[in-house]
Amino acid sequence: MVIPVHTNAKDYEIIFKRGILPEVSSYLPGNIRVMIVTDDGVPDFWLESLTVQYPKAPVHVIPNGEASKNFDTYKGILEDMLEHHLSRRDYLIALGGGVVGDLTGFCAATYMRGISWINIPTTTLSQIDSSIGGKTGIDFGGVKNSVGAFWQPEKVFIDPEVLSTLPLRHYRNGMAEALKAGMIRDPELFELFENGDMMDNEEEIIRRALMVKKEVVEKDEREAGLRKILNFGHTAGHAYESYYGFDKYLHGECVAMGMMKMTTDPVTKARLRKVLEKMNLPVSCDADPLKIAEFITHDKKADHDQITVVTVSKIGDCKLETWTTDEVVRRCRV
Fold it and tell me: Given 172, 213, 228, 331, which residue is catalytic?
């Protein structure tokens, strides 16, 4: 399946096919030089599926995890690119989860004022969410994604086969983003979680989640308005990540707790809670609500003494609300 994505910056394709990884080079120009960026959590045989196609390509391996999304890692990749004499005609290929994609995309956006890159996400989180939309960046000052750029890839390859080696906790972690897509835009997607088994419906869940994000990104590439709805659960979720030092909880687990905070109708919240518990995702934690409120007000989406948040009362129907700092504190206490 080919999913076209149309943005003001460029049009590109998402190639969505089980078993596509060993065929990547057949979809790209035959004379390109590439450098591969991956992490040490990606199984060797997935990396070998790519390096056998590009035997001369340098490979830059970073430590797995959110802690790698920093200036030092970013600098290390850029130094490697310079050492291997990458030019503006060359490509970066990201093979890994959201951290690898965000970092690689940011390096591509800033190296020599911008070069091409290919995204090959290997986790549910990155396939469902960060693989599309062109958001790239790093964490800085304890704030997630506070430095970055919009830089669209040339192509995205989504191979559900690579999820077979993903640890179950990380599998569920990414599926939280698909559940989010159902909550804000697609009741039928939500019902796949509510009434079925997420693994049995894996490809349909990924496809529907991608279509939600594609529709939103095409209408609002740079998050001027509509695209903000994709932040449902993320305002509080990012605060939880920062509070726990990006260590205790995974991103999707924090988004799950954040969605609970931003679901306003009791009946809808009860349905959400039931699904999250079915997925073995957390619904609450022991974080200090005043500290969480402080992190929220320092979020990159904050505007001095107020912040735009996404709330859901009815599944598939969300809205943007502007909260003052006092309102954030009050809500975080609930």
Answer: 213
Q: Do you know the residue count of the chain?
A: 334
Q: Considering 137, 165, 193, which residue would you say is the last residue of a domain?
A: 165
Active-site annotation holder among 145, 170, 231, 241 = 231
Q: 328: domain CATH number?
A: 1.20.1090.10
Query: Active-site residue 231, yes or no?
Result: yes
| pLDDT tens sequence across 86-142 | 999 999 999 999 999 999 999 999 999 999 999 999 999 999 987 888 889 988 887
Other beta carbons within 10 angstroms of residue 180's beta carbon come to 32
Task: Look up 135 and say whether it is catalytic.
Answer: yes
Same structural domain, 158 and 175: no
**Known active-site residue 251:** yes
Last residue of one domain, picked from the residues 165, 195, 214: 165
Q: For 251-264, what is each residue's pLDDT tens digit?
A: 999 999 999 999 99
pLDDT score at 140: 87
Determine whether 113 is an active site residue: yes
Shared domain check, 192 and 90: no
**Between helices 251-262 and 234-243, what is the axis angle to 10°?**
130
Q: Yes or no: say if 124 and 161 are a contact pair by the CB < 8 Å rule.
A: no
Rg (C-alpha) for the chain, rounded Å, is 19
Is 6 part of the annotated catalytic residue set?
A: no
Catalytic residue list contains 238: yes
Q: Which of 251, 261, 269, 331 is catalytic?
A: 251
The distance of Cα 236 from the centroid of its chain, to the nearest Å, equals 16
